[in-house]
Amino acid sequence: MKIMAIDYGDAHTGVAVSDRTLTLCGFSTVVTAYRPEAVVEQLQKLIAEHEVTELALGHPLNMDGTRGPRAEKAEAFAEQLRAATGLPVALWDERRTTIDAHNILANNGKRAKERKKTVDAVAASLMLEGYLTYKKRNG
Hints:
The protein is globular, with a radius of gyration of 14 Å. The chain has a single domain, classed as 2-Layer Sandwich (Nucleotidyltransferase, domain 5). It has 4 helices and 5 strands; from the N terminus they run βββαβαβαα.
């Protein structure tokens, strides 16, 4: 069993896949595509390649916890993923993950241009870490 965390974006989608023990991130990448169908197609390839059995999709709630247009877009994408993959898709609160990812990369000496290439994968890894911790604590 492996879990894939997805930080869905307009042009770049961060992806992180757990190891088999569901302890840590074993793989991460960024999918570059503008159409949701193209993102789903790339994710299906990664799901098959890494034998993923569950998905955690970033749910970008507003800072006050309300749903806005970005959250609604993620919810619609979750439905597309469920239909295309047949896998369970959990919506996972992703507030602050991109900010935290930028800070991690900046603190490790990455300039803004370098951060742009990897920030989505780091954000997905942070989401995955939080989701795995949640799953361990709550079964």
